[in-house]
Amino acid sequence: MTDGNRPRNQYHITKKGLADLENWMEQPIDLSHQRDEMQLKLFVGGHKNKPTVIKLIENFRTQQNDRLQILESELAEILPSVPSGILPEQFEWLEPQGTDESTRKRAVQEQALIFQLSIRQGMLKAPARITWCDEASALLKNPSFFAFIGRFFSRLPLCSYRIRARLYRNGKYYRYP
Questions:
Q1: DSSP per-residue letters across 145-171
Q2: Comparing C-alpha atoms, which of 139, 112, 140 is closest to residue 52?
Q3: In the beta sheet, which residues pair with residue 173?
C-alpha cells in the first residue's frame, strides 16, 4: 500500500499472536519489571558530580513538559472521535477493517475511548514527574533544604502530592509554618 509517494507497510496480527495478546492482557501487571531510565541513571550514576545530575534532572523536566504538551494535543485530536466514530487522519491505523458502518463506528468509538484513557494516564504522570524534578533540583542546589523537606515530608501521607506541589511556587520552595 502506498501513501502518496511513500511506501507503507501494513502488518496484521496472526491468530496465534492474537491468542498470545489476549492471554497477556488477562495477566496482572508485573510492577517489578517496569523500566524507568531516569531512576536507573540516578541509582547507577547518581554518585557522579552534582552538576551532571542536576543537568540530567533539568533535561528530564524539559522532556516531561514537552511530552505533556504532545499528549494534550493528541487528546484534543482524539476527543471528537468518541461521539462521532470518525478518527482523525493520523489515527486511521486504529480503525477496524472489513466491517459494516454501524459496527465500525462503535469499534472506533470504543478504541478512541481506550486511546483517550491511555493518553490521560500519561498526562497525569507528567506533572508528578515535573514536581519531582523541581524538588530534586532544589535539593541538589541547596542541600540545607533537605533537612526541612525531609522533616515535612515524613509527616505527609504518600498521596499528598497536592500539598507537596503547593510548597513549590514560582521557582522556589516556601517554608512550612
A1: HHHHHHHHHHTS-TT-HHHHHHHEETT
A2: 140
A3: 168
12-25: pLDDT as tens digits? 788 998 899 889 88
Three-state DSSP class for residue 129: helix
174, three cell numbers: 516556601
Domain map (residue ranges) of the chain: 48-173
Q: Which residue has the cell 496484521?
A: 12
CB contact at 8 A, 115 and 94? yes
pTM: 0.64
Rounded to the nearest 5°, which phi and psi values hold at 138?
A: -60, -40
**102: amino acid identity, one letter:** S
Query: Residue 69: how many CB atoms within 10 A of its CB?
Result: 11
Distance (Å, whole) CA 165 – CA 171: 11
Q: Which of 139, 144, 142, 148 is nearest to 176 (CA)?
A: 148
Contact call for residues 132 and 94 (beta carbons, < 8 A): no
Render pLDDT for 59-113 as a digit per residue (tens, 0 to 9). Answer: 999 999 999 999 999 898 888 887 888 778 777 777 777 678 888 888 888 888 8
